[in-house]
Amino acid sequence: MTLTTDAPAPRIALVGATGAVGTALIRLIEERGFAYRDVRLVASPRSAGRELEVDGRPYRVEALDTFDFSTVDLAFFSAGSSVSRTWVPSAVEQGALVVDNTNAFRMDPATPLVVPQVNAHELGRRPDSGIIANPNCSTIPLVRLLRPVADRWGIRQVVVSTYQAASGRGHSGIAELQEASRVTLADPAAQAPAEEFTPTLAFNVIPFIDELLESGFTLEEQKMLQESRKILGLPHLDVTTTCVRVPVVNGHSEAAWVECNDVVDRDELVRLLAAEPEVTVHDATTPGAFPTPRTAGEPDHVHVGRVRVAPHNPRGFWMWIVADNLRIGAALNALQIAEALTERGVL
Ligand SMILES: NC(=O)c1ccc[n+]([C@@H]2O[C@H](COP(=O)([O-])OP(=O)(O)OC[C@H]3O[C@@H](n4cnc5c(N)ncnc54)[C@H](OP(=O)(O)O)[C@@H]3O)[C@@H](O)[C@H]2O)c1
After folding, report:
1. Which residues hold phosphate (predicted)?
2. Residues 235, 277: one domain?
3. Does ligand 1 lie within 6 Å of residue 101's CB atom?
4. Calpha distance 269→260 (Å, rounded)
5. Does ligand 1 have an atom closer than 6 angstroms to the CB of 137?
6. How far apart are CA 127 and CA 271, in angstroms?
7. CB distance 333 to ligand 1 below 6 Å
8. For the segment 43-68, what is each residue's pLDDT rounded down to a tens digit?
């Protein structure tokens, strides 16, 4: 049981508690025994009054538009960027420290953008904005692996293709992939649903996520560049990406080419990556010994496989990355931020 009457444990609110990330956050709070003095579940008026359980106790979902944030110490926001833009400033004004899962404040200079395994040093004090931003779901696993590489060999360029699951669009994304797959299997000529994903994601791949920018890149692709630079503290890091939606229910993958300043020794690289916290390197040479979203295993680890230094250019290597976007890419990172704040006495 993680409900406690100890005074130092924070009173927490989970905004977006009914969503895919909110649901993962509730499960992680239970599994990791995160100590709280009170927990409040918040969502849209559509869900107000619905009952959900946390640590075996029932709680009624409350509507965000009437929620009083002066009654909590810490608020996790996972309800979309526009909701965060509207409501996070008033939550901060009412005294809550906010961990925001959306894109709304990530590039704000007064807001730290934190992956605890990389830049927990940013969590030593309450930020000026009252907000700590949680990075994009594909950026988090990538920077966790780039950090030791940058420290050891220096990085000249990173080229990434992502393979992002339907759950990146929340509950409705998962539901649409399942329904579109069912419709298409029954009749390949039938019109499959294509609202969350256009064209339909069933038996398809879509090289377009989020909105198109003037540069020709998408916002999702721009996030990976800007956020990696900010988290790693490398303002000139060259990261270029193609973000692709694939018909996988949950678990994002990435193929990353990393070109370094010096020649990379493969054995040392594998040792370095494997020594990172909560990273599993799948390095057997037997067929099938690589991670996939369905078979990677431990959902709270970043999984790496197919690590290969290019024979024609030994300063560069490829790696294949798999990580649970709802946990590592969102809820777990947010909770690990809260755990680090508690450990440091900031909460
Ligand atoms: N899915 C991922 O892999 C992932 C990864 C990183 C970051 N994120 C970010 O996390 C956020 C949530 O994503 P999700 O996948 O959990 O989406 P989701 O499954 O669609 O859930 C959305 C949640 O937000 C709530 N909500 C929507 N509009 C609201 C409003 N006007 N006022 C209050 N609550 C509102 C919903 O409440 P109702 O149930 O009442 O509608 C629901 O709890 C998004 O900003 C997303 O970008 C997601």
Report:
1. 106
2. yes
3. yes
4. 12
5. yes
6. 35
7. no
8. 999 999 999 999 999 999 999 999 99
Q: How far is the CA of 131 from the centre of ligand 1 (A)?
A: 18
**Structural domain of residue 41, as residue ranges?**
11-134+330-343
> Which protein residue's CA is at the shortest distance from atom 3 of ligand 1?
168
Which ligand 1 atom is the nearest neighbour of the CA of 24?
A: 16
Question: Is residue 46 a known part of a binding site?
Answer: yes
- The sign of the dihedral angle between the CA atoms of 144, 147, 148, 150 is positive
Domain CATH code at residue 260? 3.30.360.10
Ligand 1 mean position, distance from CA 281 (Å): 31
pLDDT, one tens digit per residue, over 110-142 is 999 999 999 999 999 999 999 999 999 999 999
Distance CA 154, CA 192 (A): 47
Does 253 map to a domain?
Answer: yes
Q: Do 75 and 35 share a structural domain?
A: yes
Kindly state if the Cβ of 204 falls inside 6 Å of ligand 1.
no
Q: Look at the chain and report how many structural domains it folds into.
A: 2
Question: Is pLDDT of 107 > 90?
Answer: yes
**Strand ranges in 55-125 using DSSP code E only, listed in sequence order:** 57-63, 74-77, 97-100
Identify whether 176 is part of a domain: no
